[in-house]
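Translate structure to sequence.
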């Protein structure tokens, strides 16, 4: 059975901050993977902002154009993706997490794949009352630790 999403049902909305060294960002493959997720309707991107942090710690937003900061041009086709959910305070907070000499893509996205599940739960009288995200690096570290323990 297929559930049709309505405008009052949304999937979880997440953000990621992906940091790249300024001298070799290689964001082309990252941008292509994101565009693939959008095209397959797995996610919907609300905001995509590129932030640069120079070696001296100064922070700037980078314009997403074909001549963008070296290595970040892969995101140029998503230059118009702005919802207004992110403001100066969120950008400043993201910049604090960055290392000097890096550029980062700050992306806010909705998990469209979850909408049918949430719609079905709501139709059955359910409500999402809690949600959390476990960072991928934490999961990988835990799995590696379990694998190491099993070899002993």
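Result:
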């Amino acid at each position: 059975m297929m559930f049709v999403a309505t405008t009052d049902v949304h999937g979880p909305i997440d953000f990621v901050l992906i940091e790249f060294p300024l001298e070799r960002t290689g964001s082309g493959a990252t941008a292509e993977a994101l565009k693939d997720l959008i095209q397959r309707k797995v996610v919907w991107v609300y905001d995509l902002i590129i932030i640069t942090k120079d070696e001296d710690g100064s922070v700037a937003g980078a314009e997403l154009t074909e001549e963008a900061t070296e290595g970040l041009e892969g995101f140029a086709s998503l230059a118009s993706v702005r919802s207004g959910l992110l403001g100066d305070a969120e950008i400043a907070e993201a910049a604090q997490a960055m290392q000097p000499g890096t550029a980062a893509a700050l992306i806010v996205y909705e998990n469209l794949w979850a909408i049918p599940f949430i719609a079905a739960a709501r139709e059955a009288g359910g409500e999402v009352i809690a949600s959390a995200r476990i960072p991928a690096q934490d999961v990988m570290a835990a799995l590696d630790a379990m694998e190491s323990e099993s070899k002993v």
